[in-house]
Amino acid sequence: MPYDESVPPTRRRRSLLAATALAAVCLTAAGCGAGDVGDGTRAEPRQGGGGTSAPPPSKSAPAPEKEKTSASSTPSAKTSKPSKPSKPAGGGATGPLSGKTVVIDPGHNPNNHLHTGEINRQVDIGTTHKECDTTGTSTNSGYAEARFTLDVSHRLRTLLQQQGAKVVLTYDNDRAYGPCVDERARIGNEARADAVVSVHADGSAVGNRGFHVILPASVRGGKADTSKIVEPSRDLGTRIAGFFVRDTGSAPSNYVGGNSGLDTRKDLGGLNLSTVPKVFIECGNMRDPKDAALLTSSGWRQKAAQGIADGISSYLKG
Predict the structure, then answer these.
(1) Is 282 a catalytic residue?
(2) HSE-up (13 A, CA, CB side) for residue 258
(3) Helix axes 145-161, 298-317, angle to 10 degrees
(4) CA-closest candidate to residue 217, choices 241, 242, 237
(5) Alpha carbon of 135 to those of 70, 117, 242, 286, 315: distances in Å?
(6) Strand ranges (DSSP E) for the chain?
(7) CA–CA distances in Å: residue 233 to residues 30, 187, 239, 259, 279
(8) Secondary structure class of 261 (helix, strand, coil)
(9) Phi, psi of 60, deg, nearest 5
(10) Which one of 158, 163, 188, 200 has the minimum C-beta count within 10 Å?
(11) Res 90: pLDDT
């Protein structure tokens, strides 16, 4: 889930028709749901209901599958180091994305709960101050959002590298906590990334289902100035939303964004402080049993990574 908490939006029921229409628009116009959908200001559980167009999963969320790409749930704690993004692997590959740099930001850190003092430290996000980071959410069976985000990020990195992109992760299970939200933004800026995607999963009420992509609002204040990235970020986000529908079969959120799969926010430091095109994606609701069954599935996580990769690729190719 995003780092900050959010005002519950109006309850909305999503239809299968809305998801089908979104997919059709995105496949023909490389985008979906254009147009502002409001500036939510917090990110806690919201009210809503409905289902997605994904195939019906089991009634209860299964334990996450063990696999080589998943992050360990109990990594060894190390002393946190200053801003140092992970080294891109597989450099030198050729392909349609050669010469492009993508920064992937896996939301949260599995060890944040062991460092509450550090992650509660206030940092400047331009317009105000917020916590360095948060623990994130989890499924009812205990599968942590931080494990999900790192697993999907690893899969996404592989897919982008196969197309020749240089890929940098803001962290790769290589630090005790964090990084803080301002540092996550700084890593993308210093890499002069062509695109940045922060990978998350939401923690909302049962019945709230589906994904949504969070776009930066127009913000100017203190260290924050998103004026140059609002439009390219919207382009990036709409393409990701469209391909996510196609590749995962999931429909847009039924509780955020009015069935568009898009939400615009001005309270997230990772977006406010970015000087390069950047979006967040909430891949589903970990607290809903049906969404949780998808999020804990290795096969579905691969589809999620593919949808994000296809959206990024479409954006970078223009």
Answers:
(1) yes
(2) 11
(3) 50
(4) 237
(5) 18, 12, 29, 14, 31
(6) 39-40, 101-106, 122-124, 129-131, 166-169, 195-202, 212-216, 220-221, 224-225, 262-265, 278-285
(7) 14, 17, 10, 19, 6
(8) coil
(9) -120, 150
(10) 158
(11) 45
Give me the helices (H) in 249-297, please: 269-272, 289-295
Distance CA 203, CA 128 (A): 24
**pLDDT for the residue numbered 167:** 98
Q: Which residue has the tokens 């069976």?
A: 141
User: Is residue 225 scored above 70 in pLDDT?
Assistant: yes
Average pLDDT, integer, range 230-247: 98
| Closest C-alpha to 163, from 111, 220, 89, 94 | 94
- CB of 133 closer than 8 Å to CB of 178: yes
- Select which of 5, 65, 190, 282 is catalytic: 282
Closest CA to 159 of 311, 318, 316, 306: 306
pLDDT score at 2: 58
From 237, 272, 277, select the one nearest 257 (Cα to Cα).
237
Give the residue from 3, 5, 15 showing the smallest Cα distance to 253. 15
Residue 195 has φ and ψ, to the nearest 5°, of -160, 145
- Closest to 237 (Cα-Cα) out of 220, 257, 266, 214: 214
